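**Backbone shape codes:**
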Amino acid sequence: MPVTLPSKPNTEPASARTRSRRRRKVLGVVGVLLATFTLSGLLTACESTALDRAAVIDRINASRSENGLATLRENLTLDLKADAWAGRLRDECRIFHSNLADGAPQEWRKLGENVGRGGSNDQIHTAYLNSPGHRANILDPSFNQVGAGAVWGDCNGARTLFTVQVFMRS
């Protein structure tokens, strides 16, 4: 199965310091509540399995280590953003980028995103590394946190893995 990967450059905020502390606190609490509870009040789980998500992050950090870079710390908020986006990509059976700031932690200073689909996590990661824009995100020394989503679906009759990697510098 071919791998499809659009590239999106890193985004720097115009003025991240202009947000008020109160707004950040309120949005943070709302985000945690929305991520934790459905409208019916039941706990929800991410669609990505812990093993699939860990496999994505492990490959990122292995590539960084091989290139002399520090590993990235997993960020739960970024995991939730990436997971939700991977689910949407699966549901629409296509890949495209999210609005990076939507759902990102308020303390971000720089964001990057990789989205892809293919037959396996190894196949997609290899394609990311062979794409200059995606490789740049994985190996950007300024990033210090990452979130990942990896959701399986049936796309045009083929079992397909959709992955989303969201990178952040705080």
User: Anything to note?
Assistant: Strands lie at 73-74, 110-118, 145-155, 158-169. Residues 94 and 117 are 8 Å apart (CA to CA).
